[in-house]
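Onboarding guide, step 5: your first structure request.
Type a short instruction followed by the sequence, for example:

Predict the 3D structure of this protein.
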Amino acid sequence: MTRISLREDIAELMAAYAHCLDDGELAAWPDFFTSDAWYRVVPRENFERDLPLSTLSLQGHGMMRDRLYGVESTIFHAPYYQRHILSQTHIVSHEDDTIEARTNYLVLRTKRDLPPEIFNTGVYHDRIVATPQGLKFAQRFCVFDNDLIPNSLIFPI
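The system replies with structure tokens like these:
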């Protein structure tokens, strides 16, 4: 895989991931991960101090699908839309089939009757692997900058 092709493939993975969540296609969300992937949403302070406490920590497709069942079937909330704005991805390292990458993100949340609000901002710390099905996240840590998430975290970031 050439460096340009790799960048294009990573950009497509990031764009497809954001559109999946922004379009509400939650059932497809686990497919962006390897079956044993680790998805974690963690405040920056805890991440930088290597503290284990996370706002959300899911390991593997089973936990991800369980979370989606909860979102769609048991959590009651006012409906809203999410919109992801992403920076260009910085490839930190690339060895064999494993890529370490960082991407800044901003998630806007919009309720129909209110102005949009910044819901969350931070950095994705990703470990991406090449699989026969294309690039997938083996690890995605959503490290958010502030200590507080307004209301609650419902949808994946």
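Each response can be followed by summary notes, for example: Helices lie at 3-22, 44-48, 60-73.
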